[in-house]
Amino acid sequence: MNLIPTIGLEIHVELKTRTKMFCGCLNDPDEKHPDINVCPVCLGHPGTLPAINEEAVKNVLKTGKALNGKIATRSCFDRKNYFYPDLPKGYQISQYKNPLVEGGGLNGVRIRRIHLEEDVGRLIHHGEESFVDFNRAGIPLMELVTEPDITSGKDARDFCEELQLVLRYLDVSDADMEKGQMRCEVNISLNMGTKAEIKNLNSFRAVEKSIDYEIERQAGLLGKEEEITQETRGWNDEKGKTFSQRKKEEAHDYRYFPEPDLPPLEISNLKFQISNLPELPRQKRERFKKEFNFKNEQIEILVRDKNLSDFFENAVSESKAEGFFSPEIIFNYLSSDLTGLMNEKYLNWNDLRVTPHAFGELAAMVAKKEISSRAAKDVLRIMVETGKEPNVIVKEGELEQTSNKGFIEKIAKKIIETNPKAADDYKKGKEESLQFLIGQVMRETKGKINPETLKEILKNLIFLN
Prior knowledge:
This protein has 465 residues and is of the alpha+beta class. The protein folds into three domains: 5-272, no CATH class; 281-397, no CATH class; 405-464, Orthogonal Bundle (Arc Repressor Mutant, subunit A), CATH 1.10.10. The chain has helices spanning 54-66, 153-170, 204-223, 281-292, 296-303, 306-321, 327-344, 356-367, 373-386, 390-397, 405-418, 420-427, 431-444, 451-464; strands spanning 5-14, 70-71, 74-75, 78-81, 91-94, 101-102, 105-106, 109-118, 122-126, 129-133, 140-146, 182-190, 196-201, 231-236, 241-247, 257-258, 265-266. The strands form four sheets. Strands 1, 2, 6, 7, 8, 11, 12, 13, 14 and 15 form a ten-stranded mixed β-sheet that branches. Strand 7 (105-106) and strand 8 (109-118) form a beta hairpin.
């Protein structure tokens, strides 16, 4: 039997706003103390009235515009009724019939709707006891629902990763899955049959692996002519399998009705107009290909980290100002040496003492052969540790690259005399022996010798002896 997977995604995203969705409490995802950012409104006390967060509405409209969706002219909020310990009101203010955005697409996947609602509290389990932290209750939550256009775990993962990039470029959310700022749910069936929903997937790997497992599980049941139950399932990451949680609810189970305490939103109102969008990931890929002629792998490294690509572009501008266009050199030192030092010293971009200006200046010095690539690595380490400008470090360490043949010959002769076996091995055809001698000279001179000039001088001296 030819079984075709039909997969749709529901993605919840906590929006980056100063306050919560319907009250003035701070929206602070990093607050560690429970029940600090709460008030009678987000705790659902009787007699309180919600007020719409306009910033959250704009963030959803911005996302819809970036994904080529149709922006509603008029939108309404609804009450979604269900009872759970993390839902203080006993209902959730959400949107059902009149979402803010309909249509659009990303990565070839059509989007059905994007709507706005409030998040619930956070359940904390400790032994046999459970607690609720209501700091998260009421945070603006955007829900994006796709059409069932996805057919594999990898395609679902690719969609989620690209969506996360778009959200970060728009600056509407950090979309950190580990912090629960982006949460995915999967609806999956085979041959348009009975579907199962996989809830609360908190990593891209979990999205991909849970779909792959569920396809295999459902195919196995159908192969044995057993029925597939419409249900909600969870994902056990350690075991690598889904498990049954409860019967799947239908829309009528939630008893939706219009939210009586909130007026309809007139999106045509000037306060909801969206100005020009920032450059999006797909646009940046195209521009980088045109401007720098990079390989796709290089472009993807830059595009997937906006801080990295911003630093790169600013450094390239500086190298141009220094009279040398050196994007390849900047990319190589940035993607390996600088990020390696940042990882070694546990630095983030806010902690980094190296400015794009200084980094571009260093790359220009390498490109113009003012310092060697070996010396540049040492200079960069000092830059990271001290924040000093590269020209200052080079002068203080006397690291300027030299092509003075007399000076180079003197050091080269010394190295050959102390390493006669390496010189003999090179005569016998061992190329790595010459590289060894070059390395010894570079170490002796702290990398200040021009490597091309050194290579020729070493060859001449070895074959003259």
